[in-house]
Design goal:
Elements lengths: L1 H27 L4 E3 L21 E7 L3 H19 L5 E8 L3 H12 L7 E6 L1 H9 L12 E8 L5 E2 L1 E4 L3 E3 L2 E2 L3 H34 L1
Parallel strand pairs: 2-3, 3-4
Antiparallel strand pairs: 1-6, 2-5, 5-6, 5-9, 7-8
Helix pairs in contact: 2-3, 2-5
């Protein structure tokens, strides 16, 4: 009798554990879409620049014209997000900056170059009115300051949609992540980037599996 019970437990527990974790993966495998289509970033660049949201998981930021103040935020997301994920081929950092900040950006990147490979940091420069118009397409509760800066950085998917949390325990809908808060970007943001990366890789695996079945 005892032997039967033991064998039953040994068989049933792994099965229960598998079903639990499988249901968890299905439930948490997608990061919510908060805005299905934000502005077209390609309008700010020439076709030869090859900068777009398509086929990329993008961290989008607005660091403004006062880089002496906001440079610390760039270093935060470089250390906690970029360094962790830049090895993924479809990952990129994209900052929309006011015209006239090119020299300051170059200086900041030169400082970062001593710490990491910065080739996936990309910067687009535009007039203030165009930056403000683009920012509004996020439909977020945030606003740009007088320097065209927002501390929030955003996760944009490969279709140009804004991803975030629709049930955050603190704010409800979390549209962006405060780059001035190391704990937030190292916690919530890092977790959410992991989720969206896993989402696309799971979709790719399913696609490849279906192709394999068709070819058999």
């Amino acid at each position: 009798m005892k032997k039967t019970v033991v064998l039953g437990v040994l068989f049933i527990l792994p099965l229960v554990a598998y079903l639990f974790f499988a249901s968890g993966v299905n439930h948490f495998s997608k990061l919510p879409v908060l805005e299905p289509q934000i502005g077209d970033i390609t309008k700010f660049v020439s076709p030869s620049d090859s900068i777009s949201f398509k086929n990329h998981i993008t961290i989008l930021g607005f660091m403004g014209s006062n880089l002496a103040v906001t440079k610390g935020n760039i270093f935060n997301i470089n250390q906690k997000i970029y360094n962790y994920f830049h090895g993924f081929s479809d990952f990129q950092m994209l900052m929309l900056m006011p015209n006239g900040t090119q020299n300051e950006v170059a200086k900041t990147m030169a400082e970062l170059d001593g710490l990491t490979d910065t080739h996936k940091w990309k910067f687009i420069y535009a007039e203030p009115s165009k930056i403000r118009s683009f920012f509004k397409t996020l439909n977020s509760p945030y606003a740009l300051d007088a320097y065209l800066h927002s501390p929030q950085v955003f996760i944009i998917d490969k279709e140009g949609g804004l991803r975030g949390r629709d049930d955050d325990e603190e704010v409800g809908k979390l549209y962006g992540y405060n780059s001035g808060s190391v704990s937030e970007i190292n916690g919530k943001m890092k977790d959410d980037v992991k989720v969206i990366l896993a989402e696309y890789r799971l979709a790719l695996k399913k696609y490849n599996d279906s192709k394999t079945k068709i070819s058999e």
